[in-house]
Every structure is written in C-alpha cells, then in structure tokens.
C-alpha cells in the first residue's frame, strides 16, 4: 500500500490538472430546481487559456433541458452541467454577445468530454430557442432582478424556492455586483471564431459538425 500511495496521488493531481472547469459547490433551493454557487466556478478555456469566473452567489438551473428529451439521456444534470452553468452566467450577465456565449458553451462541452450527439442536440437547442432566454434575462435585469445573491443573503429559508426568494430580494431593492463588459475571453473566442472561418477558406472549405468534418473543394469566390 505504501508503494501505491505516491502513484495514486500523482494520478489524482494529473486528473485535477486536466479539468478545465472545476466541480461546482452549490446550495440548493427547496425544489432542487435551482442552486446557488457557494464558491466561484472557474473555467479555463483550454484552447486559449482565457478564464471565465462564474461568481459565488450566482443562481443556476443547470441545463434547461425539456422533459421530453430526458428519455434520450438528456436532463438538467450530466457531463454538460458545468458548461451549462457557464453558459447560464453568460446569458445572464451578457458581458459578451449571444453568439460568443453559445460558442463558449460548445467549446466547454467538448472540453468536458460531452458526447458528439449531446453536443449537437444542446447546441442546436440554444441556437434555436436561446433568444427567448437572452431577451427575458435582459428585461429582468432592467427591472432590477438579480441572479448573483450578495453573501449577506445566502442564509435563505430551507422551504423557499428561487422564484420566491428572488421576489423577496427584489422587494427589498437588493442589487447584484457590476459585470465588467468585454472581458478577455470574449475577444479570445471571437478570434477563435475568425481563425476558424479563415482556415475554412484557406485550407479547403471544411464544414465541421459535432459528428464529423466534411471536406469540400473551395470555389474561387470563397
């Protein structure tokens, strides 16, 4: 046992070092539909090493998966949950564009080992229906609602839901921290998106999907 302990230790350190999104530490509301982060959730984008920090106090419902899709292995909780928390935060704070947020979701799912099928379904879902959530979040923020709970208000009653507690905080005029616009990761993902388009035009008009890479000949006008 003494000879195996050092090896096990280094394996654990290696695995921890490979994680681009740390494990979320949360406190759930009464219905277990929504949870609050009690520690910052940091996502280091492997492709460019930029970091996204979802602040402690942020309330998330993980992945907003319609119940009919649960039968094919999709639910609010899965390998994609951490990526969904990051995406949830970006949709709320809106410190980057919606397109950037959706692209970061796809990158985070890939780096979290989410299957290609689940990547495709989830990404298609946010591209098709994410606009409603984006606009609803914008309206909620304009009307003074929050999703990052100040630490003084973390001790919420055990029998309260997030919708109920959010209304309580709103009635008290509680506000959330300021979100800095145009963070470094926003420009980083824009550069990644631009480089991908440039490579497609220069290398052979490759069409990438979550399933495969399709090579097509470039036309002169491309």
Can you describe this structure?
This protein is mainly α. The chain has one domain (14-180). It has six helices and seven strands. It has helices at residues 4-18, 81-93, 98-111, 116-142, 162-171, 184-203, and strands at 26-28, 35-37, 41-44, 51-54, 59-60, 207-208, 213-214. A three-stranded antiparallel β-sheet has the order 1-2-5, with helices on one face. A two-stranded antiparallel sheet has the order 3-4. A two-stranded antiparallel sheet has the order 6-7. Strand 3 (41-44) and strand 4 form a beta hairpin. Helix 3 packs antiparallel against helix 4 (116-142) and helix 3 crosses helix 6 (184-203). Mean pLDDT is 77; it is low at 1-18 and 197-222.
Give the strand order of the largest sheet, numbering strands 1, 2, ... along the chain. 1-2-5
Structural class: mainly alpha
**What's the β-strand tally?**
7
Spatial gap, N to C terminus: 62 Å
Q: Which helices and strands appear, and what pairs or packs with what?
A:
Elements: H1 4-18, E1 26-28, E2 35-37, E3 41-44, E4 51-54, E5 59-60, H2 81-93, H3 98-111, H4 116-142, H5 162-171, H6 184-203, E6 207-208, E7 213-214
Antiparallel strand pairs: 1-2, 2-5, 3-4, 6-7
Q: Summed up, what is this model?
A:
It is built from 6 helices and 7 strands, in the order αβββββαααααββ.
